[in-house]
Amino acid sequence: MKNKSLVSITDYSKDEYLRIISIAGEFEKQPVQPIMQGKVVANLFFEPSTRTRLSFESAVNRLGGRVIGFSDTLSSSVTKGETLYDTIKIVSSYCDLIVMRHPLEGSARFASELTTVPVINAGDGANQHPTQTLLDLYSIYKTQGTLENLTVFIVGDLKYGRTVHSLLMALSQFKTTFHFISPDELKIPDEYKFYLHRLGLDYHERKELAVDVEKADIIYMTRVQKERFSDPIEYEKTKNAYVLKNKMLARTKDNLKVLHPLPRVSEIEQDVDMNPKAYYFEQARNGVYVRQAIMTSILGLK
Amino acid sequence: MLHMKDKKMEVSAIENGTVIDHIPAKVLFKVIAILGLDHIDKPITFGTNLDSKKLGKKAIIKLSETFFIDKDINKIALVAPQAKLNIIKNYTVVEKKIVEVPDEIIGIAKCVNPKCITNNEKIVTKFQVISKTEVQLRCHYCEKITNQENIEII
Ligand SMILES: [Zn+2]
Fold first, then answer.
1. Which of A105, A206, A255, B153 could form a disulfide with B142 if both were Cys (CB 3.0 to 4.6 A apart)?
2. Domains in chain A with CATH codes
3. What is the pTM of this model?
4. Which of A85, A103, A105 is nearest residue B144 as measured by Cβ atoms?
């Protein structure tokens, strides 16, 4: 994995997912390890994403490395019309690793082909956000003790949600049984169903959140956004059907955990937060350990 | 009569070269662009809006002293998947070929996704062909799929 960019979740194999999970576990036990001393990470945020940026910065700081970069394009040369090509060419001579977030899809792949400095994609438009997926995998592994043969419910916007598609691609390596729960307008695209079918994996698709919930090991909630609906009346009618309430968790398995990539809007009621099955805030904390693992692995330090 | 005229067009003319037949008439100029025929200095004859049972209106291109390697000619499969090639030597058809969609398309096509980096910065497009019957291209950069009906030639 040394010097290998992480642009899409499919850039890594199953073994590499497990390796990152194992290294992240070491960092969780001992988060402060000054093994990145003398290393410079360029955090290039062409669009703001405070949580992701802080998570990377925290990870670098705990490892003793330094961060350079920008967090919006208003104050940077990008506003002056500099191409991504030029920015990457120049920044490459300043750093050992590039972390980039960019509103255009495919930008991170393009950047990774312009430089010998490894690139970590921290989100390229609606396309990929692989460090989110790896922290989801770590959270699932940590709470379930395994990634194999789990039953995973994915709820909400399954059509446009990039975290959903990446998580599906990654989990499909572990014989997961999927339950896809969404309104008709936001159903999982056919190409993903064909993909699961080719792998011989079992999946279920329906509109009702409360059905079969006692089978779930993981419930992965996502936001249902108003702008995804062609008909605003349809949105008003459906939004309440995809809200998780504490009483729905009454008959669920003891090992069940509820995950959400955050930020949430109204899709998980606050009374769920007190339930020990709610895991989304811990999930966010896991992001730092996972990013420590990804960076040190790519730099050949782990 | 038209049929006969058509027939005449096919068999007359070239001594050595390539005849590309069964091009849908509406993509003739795309085929010309893809093959870079505007840069060839050998004689070329075009016929278009010829009646065709299969295609409605078809076009035909006859190129004297010009031969293509498969890798180049296969590029036209994106817009003219039913195109047929006749290789002519000494006024005789010595070989017939059909085009085949390649596994990878570099340049030529535009990504359908307006938010793709290739539509916003100067980049040569690149696609993996994930279906050849009804052509589907997956963008190497944004990973979105461009379907046959959305293929736009650069
Ligand atoms: Zn694209």
1. A105
2. 9-128+287-298 (3.40.50.1370), 131-284 (3.40.50.1370)
3. 0.87
4. A105
